[in-house]
Design goal:
By secondary structure, the protein is an alpha/beta fold. It is built from 29 helices and 25 strands.
């Protein structure tokens, strides 16, 4: 039988992003298909990346019809994603369109398409180099230096060449101050031409670099970044600078959520966007990104982008915000508002369509005059803080049809302060509060205070109801305890808003089915609740909320069970195939030989205490130091808290690890050895571990050797030799005498593959067991909730 064209031409490997491009969907949609469809093709993992066979993907896409609201011009009701993918592949349109249309790319620095290379470079920039260049003003000036270098590199080729030329020139007259002035003046010149009045040069001269070479290194590293790495610079800075509530930036997903709500609420696109407490420009930037997606699906040509307006009391972050917006190529007008509050002077000159702001919380009016003398339509805020001044100010500058999204502390929604309660009552009675979204805690780097987003509407659009959405369960906790919202979480909130109000100005293609609990509360009910604007007070009693949470959690859990079950089934089949290949005469008749580790490997002891002393471990070190406690279950733990500087590690190159190395315990409790992965290349060995590195031409494969040395009897032999000393300790010579049985290389590879698969199967089955246990608990709780909420008594 003749093989199909797809079997001949579709055997190349695809990433998830490439699948998305072929199918004309977002990468998030591909992830959702993979998670929810048990028959979605299984990935092949190599070099730390998942790949899919193209013909398997096309075959699966053939069975999935494109819904009517997803069809492009010229596609009929019978079109499938498979047909679309083949057309795009044949036309070559995929190559000209490397990224799929997406609602949520954040402009300069989307999280999904920034590779590990950019992240590694940012890690180096934010490591010891930041301290050496930053000096006492590291918190802001160093960030402005990195942003300015990136800005020049991306947008000003001639200026970038001038900076590089000075940095790499020879001569004794070069100086750090002159190079910093050059970067600052070139940046200011470019931004002035764009209508901004930053003070980059003044900010950069406050830096006190230790050596000229350190700035040269910063220039070199920034030059290696991709054009869309700006957001990673801000993120890396934010994670290391420990900013206070006045300085920290709005997380990108929160900024997108706020901009998405404001745009979805309007009946037309926004022509102007204003932020009265500009931080790093992230809210205004998100407004541009979301406007583009709403109108044209990620195509800038012909899109009427809004004019951006902002003011800030912080001189140091004004250049950063200017560069953030300039990288997007939009018109903006930013001004410094040193001293005072935004409502003390009339600006902007005309009403605006959209206000987005994340003001500081609980800031006192030190003069105790602003709130007494200002004009407050809904009531004068208390002298103690400005929490209720910012939303009123936002409403005062809106044009008809305008919306304002303001970050507010949860306690502002139901505080007992008489003045604040009166303001809430006035805002509810006049119908200017449209929606309140409760967000998870620990979203912001500068505070763990839980917050809400208040969506306000111009009085001309006053309504009788307030929509409350509870998004507190969204997001995932990352290392360090900070919670991060994913793109799907943002879409879920926007879906919930659009579902309740019947609006959808923002394109929500391939939105997930994850539900965000919500309820609309009328004015009379709000009066009865003391005008509370805290969603928790309106989401029903404990039983009702538990049922809502259980429903959402159950959907996620059962999807996980289905996905894990499918993975187990696929791995069971692969195990059977590998077992069949090993259970043959070819393997039974193979010649096995006994070889010592000294014959197979170069054996290297870890660095001595004299070379790598405890004092060399520093808090801001970036190179991990491996100790026996980090060898766990045949792997090296990623949670290593002992690190040294790159300079120290470079002097100990003999003791660095490479991918494929096998690390054994030298002193201490003896256990199975660990295999070094690609991500762990460059880590250092402490004095209590020992390294095996297979030599080429000896006939041993690292994967097989690692598996053989992990067998209980092999570990037992090492323990026996170590126990002969006063404390458990294995010498290089004793380890070198350890013997292993080696089959031919092809058999070693098959054995290693089977053992690795069995290890992976064990882990997946544990995950499935955990998911099933969780599902069982959800079922029991759901039955209990249904019983408690039933109007009938048994």
């Amino acid at each position: 039988m003749k093989k199909s064209t797809d079997e001949h031409e579709g055997t190349r490997l695809l990433t998830r992003m490439q699948i998305a491009v072929l199918a004309g969907v977002t990468r998030a949609a591909v992830t959702t298909w993979e998670r929810r469809a048990a028959d979605f093709p299984a990935p092949r993992r190599t070099s730390g990346q998942d790949y899919f066979l193209e013909f398997e993907v096309l075959s699966w896409l053939d069975g999935r019809r494109v819904p009517s609201h997803r069809r492009a011009q010229g596609e009929d009701e019978f079109i499938t994603y498979g047909v679309r993918a083949r057309r795009r592949r044949a036309s070559g349109s995929v190559a000209a369109q490397p990224q799929p249309t997406s609602l949520l790319p954040p402009g300069p620095g989307t999280r999904d398409d920034l590779g590990t290379r950019d992240a590694e470079i940012i890690g180096n920039l934010m490591g010891p180099l930041a301290e050496r260049v930053g000096g006492p003003d590291r918190e802001v000036a160093y960030l402005n230096l990195l942003a300015a270098l990136h800005f020049l590199h991306v947008t000003q080729p001639s200026s970038w060449q001038a900076v590089k030329g000075y940095a790499t020139s020879s001569g004794d007259r070069r100086s750090s101050s002159d190079l910093l002035r050059l970067v600052g003046s070139q940046t200011d010149k470019a931004l002035h031409a764009m209508g901004s009045l930053p003070e980059t040069r003044d900010a950069l001269v406050r830096l006190e670099p230790r050596r000229f070479e350190d700035i040269v290194e910063a220039v070199r590293l920034v030059g290696l970044l991709s054009p869309r790495a700006f957001q990673l610079i801000v993120k890396g800075y934010e994670e290391t600078a420990r900013l206070g509530s006045r300085e920290f930036f709005t997380p990108l997903p929160v900024a997108q959520l706020m901009a998405g709500l404001g745009l979805a609420a309007r009946s037309s696109s926004a022509t102007s966007v204003y932020d009265p407490y500009l931080r790093g420009g992230e809210l205004l930037g998100a407004a541009v990104d979301m406007s583009v997606r709403a109108v044209s699906g990620n195509v800038l040509d012909g899109v009427p982008l809004p004019r951006l307006l902002g003011q800030t009391p912080r001189r140091a972050t004004l250049p950063l915000a200017s560069m953030n917006l300039a990288l997007r190529g939009v018109r903006f007008a930013l001004q410094l508002r040193a001293g005072g509050r935004p409502w003390e002077r009339a600006w902007p000159p005309e009403p605006v369509d959209l206000v987005l702001t994340n003001p500081p919380f609980n800031m006192k009016d030190s003069l105790q005059e602003t709130t007494r003398t200002g004009t407050w339509r809904y009531g004068a805020p208390p002298v103690g803080n400005d929490n209720f001044a910012y939303p009123q100010y936002a409403l005062s500058v809106l044009a008809e049809g305008g919306r304002a999204a303001v970050v507010m502390p949860n306690k502002a929604g139901n505080s007992g302060n008489a003045a604040e309660a009166a303001i809430r009552g006035a805002m509810v009675e006049r119908g200017v509060v449209e929606c309140v979204v409760a967000l998870p805690d620990k979203l912001f780097s500068g505070t763990s205070v839980p917050v809400c987003v208040w969506l306000l509407r111009h009085p001309a659009d006053a309504g009788d109801d307030v929509l409350f959405l509870d998004a507190r369960d969204l997001g995932a906790v990352q290392r360090g305890g900070r919670r991060v919202l994913a793109d799907d979480d943002v879409r879920s909130v926007l879906d919930a808003y659009g579902g309740h109000w019947g609006r959808g100005a923002v394109d929500l293609r391939d939105s997930p089915a994850t539900a965000v609990p919500g309820t609309r509360v009328d004015r009379e009910a709000l009066r009865d609740a003391g005008y509370s604007l805290n969603p928790i007070d309106h989401m029903g009693g404990p039983v009702q909320r538990a049922i809502g949470q259980s429903s959402r959690a159950a959907e996620t859990t059962w999807a996980e069970v289905a996905s894990l079950t499918a993975r187990c089934r696929q791995m069971d089949e692969r195990t059977g195939q590998l077992q069949a290949r090993l259970n043959t005469d070819r393997v039974r008749r193979a010649t096995w030989r006994s070889v010592t580790l000294a014959e197979l490997c170069d054996i290297q002891l870890g660095a001595s205490h004299a070379l790598l002393a405890p004092k060399d471990r520093i808090p801001d070190g970036t190179v991990p130091v491996v100790s026996p406690k980090h060898l766990r279950d045949g792997r090296l733990s990623d949670t290593i808290d002992e690190r040294v500087s790159p300079e120290r590690a470079a002097r100990l190159d003999t003791y660095r690890l490479e991918a494929g190395d096998i690390v054994c315990v030298r002193a201490g409790a003896m256990g199975p050895p660990a295999m070094v992965t690609e991500e762990q290349t460059g880590w250092l060995m402490s004095s209590n571990v020992i390294r095996l590195r297979c030599r080429e031409g000896t006939g041993g494969l690292p994967d097989y050797l690692h598996a053989a040395l992990g067998l209980p009897e092999a570990v037992g032999r090492v323990r026996d030799r170590a126990a002969a000393t006063a404390a458990p300790f294995i010498t290089k010579a004793a380890l070198g005498r350890q013997e292993v049985l080696l089959p031919p290389l092809d058999v070693q590879a098959e054995f290693a593959a089977l053992l690795a698969l069995l290890h992976e199967r064990s882990a997946v089955h544990r995950e499935l067991s955990r998911a099933l246990t969780h599902a069982k608990g959800l079922v029991l709780r759901h039955l209990s909730d249904m019983s408690n909420s039933s109007p009938f008594t048994v």
